[in-house]
Amino acid sequence: MPSETTGRPADDATRLSPLSAAQRAEIFAALDPVPGCAKPDPVIVVDGVTRKFGGLTAVDVAHLEIQRGAITGLIGPNGAGKTTFFNLITGFDKPNTGTWALNGESLGKLVPHQVSRRGMVRTFQLTRALAKLSVLDNVRLGARSQRGENFFAALAPWTWRSQEADVTERAHALLKRFKLDAKAQDYAGSLSGGQRKLLEMARALMCDPEVVMLDEPMAGVNPALTQSLLEHIKSLRDEGRTVVFVEHDMDVIRDISDWVVVMAQGSVIAESLPHRLGENEAVVEAYLGGHHDQMLEFDADGNPVGATAELAEEVDDAVAKALQAGGDLSTAGTHPTGAEEKTL
User: What would you measure as the largest C-alpha separation in the chain, in angstroms?
Assistant: First the structure.
């Protein structure tokens, strides 16, 4: 019988050990907030992972540890390498160098379904529901080791009917948990964007993961469903699961994260408690650029001098290049140096 609240078999319900809010606060308050800082009980450890596309370095993570049983937010400017990093450690892409492990077991040579079997699953920024299958069937597909999926076993239904009944019961329990039970027989393609996010989360939980990786779970979600999604993410932590999620909304980060990792130009540049991000100069630099606190200098006639004159010249060049390329001034100052982006 599945657990009423988790949708997984009752004999597995005690496998995960939730941390209380006080325990999590104590763990993270004791950490030295520097990139790659050691955690007391890391579930994921990453070392020397790089990914290059031609001459572009998308990911260059020297060392990173993810604390077990907590929610870790992964943030950074667009093009910081967050999704590429997700792709690497979940088996959807291969790095040029580096190793990473889940519970001490190396995952470097595994493909996505093997990573999932080890206990780590992910969702995508753009949902990947099978539109022509029912919502219920989409969730049932997430169950592992289904005997009926074997060609020869499929010809002997009496060998897998009881397992299929259990899988279906678990799927219904998860649909009820995510408030999609009324949509069970509808085509997945008929769901709204927010409902598809919930469907992906339900399908991910069918394999009873220890670690759930969420890539921008709030992207494109109707505000009416945002709070529901946040509560579901918190509930994963309350069950003892580890959650790592990419997000751009800082209010969301502060609301649900226990710890935050900041990436820029492919590297981890900072780690911090959520409410102390604004105190970190590296984070401010990554989001506001290198000139946000530069003292402006002018001569007696109001003309820029010194570093201010150089900055003004860079901005003028960027504006001219944008206009020559057929752009407009709304984007001309985005990269004052006019340099091409060197990381993804």
Answer: 92
